[in-house]
Amino acid sequence: MVHGKLATVLWLLGAAVVSRLIPHPHNFAAVAAAGLAAGAILPLRRAWMIPVAAMAIADGLGELFGLPGVTWYQPELMMAVYASMAVSAGIGALWLRGSPSVLRIGSGSLAASLTFYLFSNFAIWAGTSMYPSDAGGLLACYVAGLPFLSPTIAGDLVYSGLFFGAMAWAGSTHRARATTAC
Predict the structure, then answer these.
(1) What is the pLDDT of residue 1?
(2) CA dihedral of 164, 165, 171, 176, whole degrees rounded to 10
């Protein structure tokens, strides 16, 4: 079973990296979904590393190959984005461990999307001079970020469905093989 879990972790990591490197709509990527899935199957002390490593690998490759939109960026924003991805693993660990239902996967995915939206827009407001440093500026920043929220939610839902569906299918296939092998 250890090999199966390692294969799943590597698959999640690889899918998250590739989803950021291939052409895609802004924020429609598999990183938070990989964090949710990692949190559901790994101890949290390890699970948070999957989405953070996916971000670091994709950002590094984006920088190396000059890929638009996938590169190192402002440190304040990077920290907020990476932290929000680590939180997705925590959501997976708290909300999706065991036998997650479609409702729990959907609500966990939505929570991960909202976490990213809140963290990243707060970092933009706090770390740049684009908005006034008051409540009105913060609100303006969150309003300006709204067009990016729907693709974030869509991507997180799609990839969460794919990841948890694939893991459920793989688990049922493994159980079926184990029972027929007896």
Answers:
(1) 46
(2) 170
Phi, psi of 82, rounded to the nearest 5 degrees: -60, -40
Backbone angles phi, psi at 102, to 5 degrees: -60, -40
The CATH number that applies at residue 143 is 1.10.1760
pLDDT tens by residue, 35-68: 999 999 999 999 999 999 999 999 999 988 888 7
Q: Tell me the two tokens of residue 101.
A: 């239902």
Domain count of the fold of the chain: 1
Q: Give the Cα separation of 130 and 14 in Å (integer).
A: 35
Q: List the structure tokens of 40.
A: 């559901």
Q: Is 106 within 8 Å of 98 (Cβ atoms)?
A: no
What pLDDT, on a 0 to 100 scale, did the predictor assign at position 171? 75
**Mean pLDDT score of the chain:** 91
CB-based contact 47:38 (threshold 8 Å): yes
Judge residue 148's burial from the number of C-beta atoms within 10 Å of its C-beta, 0-12 exposed, 13-18 middle, 19 or more buried.
middle
Classify burial at 68, counting beta carbons within 10 Å of its beta carbon; exposed 0-12, middle 13-18, buried 19 or more. exposed
